[in-house]
Amino acid sequence: MSDGHRRAQAAIQTILRLTNLLMAGKRVAVIGDEPELAARLRAMGAQTLLADPAAALRGHRVLAEDEAVALADLVIGATEAHLPLLRDGAILIPAVPPAGPPEAGEPPEAGEPYGTDGEPSGTGEPYGADGEPPAGPSGTGGEPSGTGGVLAGLPGVRVRDGITGYRLGPGREVFVLDMSC
After folding, report:
1. What are phi and psi of 102, to 5 degrees?
2. Are the beta carbons of 68 and 74 closer than 8 angstroms?
């Protein structure tokens, strides 16, 4: 099995585990070169939206990247440039994948969510003692949210483990999946 197939399967398993979404009928924008992921999502019944004209030959709907992001229920590979285009309630998977556990004995680099034992760092508690979301760029006590910096400046509220909600404006909220969970 190739690395592309492994990455696609791991991404889909994480998305399904975190969201419990039924992919059939969902509009999914896949930004970047992820043909295996797009093919698997299409096989699950999702309407895949890609910017690559050659994708039409493989059964995907081809749109300009901005149009695809604006229509999508789920956006895979989003960047900061896509934020103004996202629709209310969209689920976002950032373009920069979170780093995996470091090799044994290596300290994690700044911003990595793993300790030296390969286990996730932090307490995992979504709220502080006062019942309010902890301070920090992701609303999770300053721990990395796995967003790859896409929403680094916005306060977010952890909806549940692996999902953080961000309010982009009046009546516009998006949810970001932490693919390291």
Report:
1. -70, 165
2. no
Query: Which CATH number characterizes residue 50's domain?
Result: 3.40.50.720
| pLDDT of 58 above 60 | yes
Q: Burial, 25: exposed, middle or buried (Cβ in 10 Å; 0-12, 13-18, 19+)?
A: exposed
44: buried, middle or exposed (CB in 10 Å: 19+, 13-18, 0-12)? middle
Domain count along the chain: 1
- 126 contacts 133 by C-beta, under 8 angstroms: yes
What is the C-alpha to C-alpha distance for residues 133 and 72, in angstroms, rounded to an integer?
Answer: 28
Structural domain that includes position 66? 3-177
Q: Report helix, strand or coil for 17.
A: helix
pTM for this entry? 0.69
Extended beta strands in the chain, E state: 27-30, 47-50, 61-62, 74-78, 91-94, 156-160, 163-169, 172-177
